[in-house]
Amino acid sequence: MPVLDLFKLDGRRALVTGGGRGIGRSIALALAEAGADVAVTARTQKQIDAVASEIKGRGRRSLAIPCDVRKTEEVNRCVEKTIADLGGLEILVNNAGILFHNWLVDTSDKSWHDVLDTNLTSAFLFTRAAGKHFIQRKGGNVINLASAAGIAASPRQAPYHASKAGMLLMTKSLALEWNRYNIRVNAIAPGFFDTDMTKPITSSPKMRDEFIKRIPLRRLGKPEEIGPLAVFLASDASSYITGEVVVIDGGVTAY
Ligand SMILES: NC(=O)c1ccc[n+]([C@@H]2O[C@H](COP(=O)([O-])OP(=O)(O)OC[C@H]3O[C@@H](n4cnc5c(N)ncnc54)[C@H](OP(=O)(O)O)[C@@H]3O)[C@@H](O)[C@H]2O)c1
Q1: pLDDT above 70 covers what percent of the chain?
Q2: Residues 82-97: what's their mean pLDDT?
Q3: Closest Cα to atom 39, ligand 1: which residue?
Q4: How many angstroms does the Cα of residue 135 sit away from the middle of ligand 1?
Q5: Residue 94 belongs to what domain range?
Q6: Are 37 and 61 in contact (CB under 8 A)?
Q7: How many structural domains compose the chain?
Q8: Cβ–Cβ contacts within 10 Å for residue 228, how many?
């Protein structure tokens, strides 16, 4: 098979959480460009509707499913609707996430649970729901959005670091659990990307410059630079890769 054909996702169906903006939107559009039909989910209806329209504009089927990824019933409904309306599911991208900064002693129970529930428990809920379908069909592909912050730490972000480090080992554990069903499970670990999530840090020119100084490639990542990596991991081009974490960080973790 010609090498570029290995990246094609024609006929596959994908679900991207947090697909309304930022990295999730870019991944959803890239998967669609590679040939997949893509359902996107998040809480903001207007944003997921806009992304679903963009996907349809690329000639693929799409669904915009509102869902709070912290809520089991909503997650189960979202996965069921995707499978029913698209006729199946082969690719799950667990991308929804929030960032949180505070000293640990000033962190409330609610903030701790919000971060862990949104960033980590959501991936458990979606992967469990989709996994039952993948196991039945003896095939599937899970891509988890972890972070360079799951590998290296900084102060005032303990819940975020805990959630992303948890995502990395959950990825590896599931890869070992589901190898027998032909289900691959991998993670993407981005560094600093220019999205709404990082705006509070990067909108101050002084802080932005400080961050950029720490990046060997001397710039923030662009969300659209993650799409091709997601296509690679979702496609047969990566058929022998599972339980892996691919860092995409402009060199930050090379220090
Ligand atoms: N940007 C970076 O530098 C960076 C670096 C490393 C890792 N990451 C990871 O990459 C992922 C995407 O980040 P991003 O920068 O693209 O963030 P973003 O622009 O803030 O987008 C986050 C997405 O997650 C959704 N989301 C948040 N809470 C949700 C909830 N309770 N239920 C449903 N959806 C929810 C948001 O939609 P609604 O608010 O509408 O629900 C939105 O679509 C996250 O997991 C993040 O931790 C980002």
Answers
A1: 100
A2: 98
A3: 43
A4: 28
A5: 3-190+226-247
A6: yes
A7: 1
A8: 16
